[in-house]
Amino acid sequence: MAVRALKTKQVRKIILSRPAVEAGEKLGFLPGDMKEKIDPYLQPLYDALEDMIPPLKLKEHIENKIIQIAPLAFMRGRTLNDAVIILDEAQNTTKPQIKMFLTRLGLNAKMIVTGDITQIDLPVSQQSGLIHSMHLLKGIKGVSTVEFNKKDIVRHKLVQRIVEAYEKSEEKSV
Fold it and tell me: What's residue 27's pLDDT?
């Protein structure tokens, strides 16, 4: 949807973000400059773009800031106009982080927030900002929610069976 909106000139840019949260294991300090430190967290966004945009065109769009990939931590203070803004892995945002992100919405802009509430990597004591905002914003005009289930999985067909096995295991442990 975002790439289509860019191609049809409905927006001038695509902005992609995600929180820098590790999936369970601590990697420690990463070497290199800021880009080298944050790129591992943002790699899934690059991967998705590479599936939709030819490599040379993607490189050109990134260099010209038509496509921007930014860590969530660097969104504060921005107003995002004429853009499709996507927050990926939002289940790993805190309540203040998702509020900060959602309030960046500018003119002629659309936000898409994605996340899987079964894969939260936050400390147990911290509520997911995604879950909080889903309840808080329910019923607000202009905000809608689409929930997917295992039948919507577009990865390898084995993934659906893996998800089912985990769901059964979790049902037994409750």
Answer: 47
